[in-house]
Amino acid sequence: MPLTAHVQEVTLPAGSTRHRTPLDVGWATNVKSFKTLSLVRSEPTWVRPTIYQALTDHPYLSSSLILLKSPDWSNTIAIYPIGTLAADHNLVVEDGTIMSSLIRASGTAHEEAWVVCVKADGAEQRDIVKAAIEAARSVVPQAKDSSGESPSSRLWEGIGVCSWEALSCNDNRPTRDLLLSLLPSFPINTFLIDDGWQDVREPHERQRVLHGFTPYSGFGASMKQVVGELKARGVRHVGVWVTMQGYWNGIDPESELIQRYECERWPLAKRGHPRDVDEAEPEDYNLVCWLPRPRLAEAFWKDWFRYLKDEGVDFVKVDNQASYEALVGSGANESLKAMWSGMLRAVQSTWGSMDRVIMCMSHTPLMLNGPGGLDFDRPPGPLVYRNSDDFNLKYDERHTDFIQWNTYTSILTSHLALIPDFDMFSTAPQGRLPLYHALLRALGPGPTLISDSPGEASDTSLINRLTAVHRDGARKAVKMDRAVVLSHNRWFWDNVQGEGGGPALVASVPAPRAHGALIGAWNVRRAQKGADAVDEIGLEEVQDALGRQLVEEERFVIYDVALGEGSLERYQTVTLGSRESLSLRIPKAGAELLIVAQSWQVGESSISVLGMLDKLAPLAGVDVYYKSGTVTITGKFRSTVSILVQNRTPGLKETDKQGRRVEVGWRQVQEGWVGSIEFGPSDSGIEAVWTVDVSA
Question: Which end of the chain, N or C, is less surrounded by CB atoms within 10 Å?
Fold first, then answer.
């Protein structure tokens, strides 16, 4: 039964710049004692998913989504605000009361917005955020459901390199020689030239501004030459980093760009001022930002992007988007919207596809609660969206927090018109936890970007777990097409990142075409005082991973791939009502991968398709069909596909499309047998195997 959503219309009166309205939904108002999970904007550029013991503990900061759990844990409430290009919309908690908070973005007219409230109990709680987003789309007629859509281009099908770690290690700026030295021994699809390539000036301390569209004088070559050399060495697509302001602090007042785009001077808010809460005051030392006049914002972006395209550049990463809200003064938000909308239209007109821009430092109402995420009043299509703060920040909890931020934030972003991007990661050195991070990237649809430091040999064995040759002949990233999300039954657990021993962080992503799912389990205990993560994976986690309840007579296996050093492959069968579970013990800095696979009756045997056990997304590109006692497996990658057979009998047959027997390598795991079947071309010259039938 579909969940019922209550939609409250709220208004921003004509002439008002801000307006707050309390919720009028009875069951969403008497909730001060409810446990709270909030996507709270605790940083100017990022939301932080945070659990509070009660709503009254919520800080005076804006939120993009509030989830409430009743004291008896019987029901959940989701509250989601919807804004427009004309009015930003978020939630603010005042003395335990949830308020709609509208902030004018343009014009002076009366504006309408909405708050969606959904209440669910039992198994329906799993779908509460999905129901809230569906209701949001229903009240904004032009909103489109492009969540889960494949990008319209093939830009992100392979893996790539990002230059950031090479720059940050030694405070380098990118040069032709440095960038070429970062090309790895394995083939890559994309190369992102990160911060530092632009022609910038520093007229005042702590102020770096854009002087022109071309690279700085020490780049060592033209952009066209560098891009050409990268592509000559096998890179298919090259991208560059910019910010929403051109550079961090806007445009150089001494640049000819000032006159060309009639740039305006904006004071900036005091550093650290909470966004979307109260009016900001200008910075004490009069730090300012020069930006194009709104009517010329689109022209600014089109001119720059056309230059870049002419130089061979194929995509852009637009950073520091949320910091744009630091502008102070009448018309500041209008300037923001003009630059944001103009940038997206320029991407569309220049490259023709919205996956050609990575939206970064962009955790704003515009993206999470408005046109960006709901896909209206902008060029259509899913946007690549940095889901969290940066990889490898400089503090103790940087790795554990990173997993937490992304799997919790995906509770919302996985339902929006966004392609969650889990940022780059390193395959070496081991101190950056390569496998720990690689697992997260494989369990999502975003770019797979490697950022290893100069002098560090990339771990090609890990690269091989992330890639395979597709049946079309191209080497591609093996990854899921939806984002991994924290297991619903654990949304309100508050001891996952505690000290000492305790549960793991458990998140999952469905693989419906394979009749299964993947579960990632990470130890995110405290870096200094944490210990092993000890957990049980059972029926609740299986149902959360599949996104549905099991029905009578269905059987699934939970198969432990054994990522951890010294761990062993094993499995557990679960059925509706079963209490069996698979126990986990994960050491610090460790992670495990579990496959959920449906079991099919074939003669006297039970068959479960495990997929590619040598990959971190084993079920990616695997389709499974069952009809009349036959399991049919189709694969898209040249790889080894494994099946688990319980009660293996001599009459079991594995054949290709022509009915020829295929070779299967068998090994025993517990009481079952794992069979390995090679998919793709064979050395013997026989037609490539992409489909296998298992029958009795």
Answer: N
Residue 494: partners with Cβ closer than 8 Å, 6 or more residues away: 51, 53
Q: Which residues pair with 207 in a beta bridge?
A: 204
The string of pLDDT tens digits covering residues 57-68 is 999 999 999 999
* Least confident residue range of 278-282, 349-353, 588-592, 633-637: 278-282
- Mean pLDDT in residue range 269-285: 71
User: For residue 167, which of 439, 438, 424 has the smallest C-alpha distance?
Assistant: 424
Statement: residue 153 has pLDDT above 70 = no
Contact 248, 200 (CB under 8 A): no
Summarize the confidence of residues 29-52 as an average pLDDT: 95
Task: Report the pLDDT value the prediction gives residue 152, as an integer from 0 to 100.
Answer: 55
Q: Would the CA dihedral through 143, 408, 104, 344 be positive or negative?
A: negative
User: Cα 659 from chain centroid?
Assistant: 42
The radius of gyration of the chain's CA atoms, rounded to the nearest angstrom, is 26
Order of strands, edge to edge, in the sheet holding 190-193? 418-421, 383-386, 357-359, 315-319, 237-243, 190-193, 159-162, 448-450
Alpha helices in 531-606 (DSSP H): 539-546
Closest CA to 380 of 88, 144, 134, 154: 144
pLDDT digits (tens, 9 = 90+) for 185-202: 999 999 999 999 999 999
Q: Which helix (H) or strand (E) holds 448?
A: strand 448-450
Count CB-CB contacts under 10 A for residue 609.
29
282: preceding bond cis by omega (within 30 degrees) = no
Strand partners, 602: 605
What is the spatial distance between Cα 515 and Cα 556, in angstroms, rounded to a whole number?
9
Q: Which residue type occupies 564?
A: G
Of 506, 512, 478, 406, nearest to 148 by C-alpha is 512
Q: Please give the C-alpha separations between residue 531 and each of 124, 489, 696, in angstroms, as whole numbers.
A: 34, 23, 48
User: Under a CB-based contact definition with an 8 Å cutoff, are residues 348 and 112 in contact?
Assistant: no
Full-model pTM: 0.97
pLDDT digits (tens, 9 = 90+) for 313-335: 999 999 999 987 788 888 888 89
Beta-bridged to residue 90, according to DSSP, are 101
What integer pLDDT is reported at residue 166 of this predicted model?
Answer: 82
Residue whose token pair is 């029958």: 695
* HEC assignment per residue over 577-629: CCCCCEEEEECCCCEEEEEEEEEEEECCEEEEEEECCCCCCCCCCEEEEEECC
């999970």: which residue's tokens? Answer: 37
Q: How many CB atoms lie within 10 A of CB 292?
A: 26
- Least-confidence region, from 145-149, 393-397, 448-452, 582-586: 145-149
Question: Would you tell me how many other CB atoms lie within 10 Å of the CB of residue 138?
Answer: 12
